[in-house]
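Worked example

This section walks through a single chain of length 486. The input is the sequence exactly as stored; nothing has been trimmed or padded.
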Amino acid sequence: MNRYIKRALIVLPIVLFVIVNTYLFVLNKSLFASEKPYDAYQIDTHDMRDTIEMTGIIMPEEKEEFFYDESYGALKEILVEEGEEVSAEDEILAYHTENLEARITALENEVEVLETEKDYHEDRETLISNQILQEESKEDDEKNETTIFLLEQEEAEAAYQADRIDTIISNKESEITQLETQSEEVTIKSSISGKVQEVTTQRGANKAPLVVVVNDDDLFVQAFLSEKEALFVNEGDEVKLQSVKGEEWDGLITSVQPAPEHEKEGMFKIEIEFVEDDTTEFQIGHTLNVTVKPVVVEDAIAVKPENILYEDGHEYVFVVENDYVDKRKVQLGFKNDELVQVTKGLKAGEHILMEPNRLLVDNMEIEVKVIPLKKVIKTSVETETDSTETGTSNTDSSSTEDQEESEDTDNDSSDTEEQNDETEDTDSESNTDSQNDGSDNTNTDTSDTEEQDDGKKSRYNSDKKDRQNILDPPAEERDEDSGPKG
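Given that input, the structure is written out below as tokens.
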């Protein structure tokens, strides 16, 4: 039993020592949390972007397909070969005409149907245009920008369909004119210049075209977006294009249209043009990775993710005003790779700490060092600018240091000269006093008075030097005290 008591007496002091030291460590850390300088920056508004990635296909700007049409008669000959260069008005297909009158009548019936369809799309375009005007005339709080956007897309689609049908009607009418002037043979001509991409001899197989002609001088990239993604994408937005080999090119969105032909409902089709003029290295049908970063939230109050303290299921930032801490609860919104939107609890112009500290409490006074915003939240352009400024800053810093060293040397030299002057003055006075003492003992009182005056002069010089140091401190002290505070 005594053995256990002895062990307890040995272990207990050790445990108490550990507990007391741990408490003192935590207490010391808390007490001195306010003494170190904290980096802070001023809140500003930012346009926050999202990253949308998709796969695009390289397409020709101009493409024409020629299908077998038995109404022309029997196909006599395909007049071109795959890979052949053709010009506009070159003959592509030749038919034996068996019944010209029947063919002309059929074409006239087709034109009549197409005219009706064209009228439908034109009427629809006018109707949608009126709906847009009606929606835009509403008050701001009742106006729905999403509805306006979708109506504008539908209006553009209706206009596109009307123009497309008008082109078909013109081609049909040209065919009628051609049939009326020919008797035994009908030839189908190309309307574009380009290269024969494909020739198929199997007539009507899977409704495939007999001949495909493409103009590969002007290429673009076609990709598809969901309706939600299309809301944030606009014509003129910049995109990045990347091949499977990692090669990159710049592009611009030239068109955003509904894609009813897509297998998924509600998809939108975008067309992207290459910024580079030379597109000879691209091949029609190849795929590219497309990345666009549209603005999702304009003028957002946003902070870096590391500026936020997550505690007890809530989010906080440390706002600093006049060197005093305000631990403030905030609400967050949209997030991207760099920033987090603050929807409530923070406003532009306020300063927040870059690194939240759990030991800080409300109304605690701290030392703050304000960091320029561009060094906290950087764009690619700002990064390059910062590197240039850093080089210039280093040069200026080195010259400043040289000047400071020179000033320090001058100060040391002047201090040494002052000390030497004081020493000489003291020696001179001492010799004078000695001579006076030897020549006349009655001057003892006078000598004492002079020594007192010398002491007062020495103290005065010392006090004057101290006052001068306060008003104009040495370069080293100026450097130490020059850091920005609160």
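What to look for: The first strand starts at residue 37 and ends at 42.
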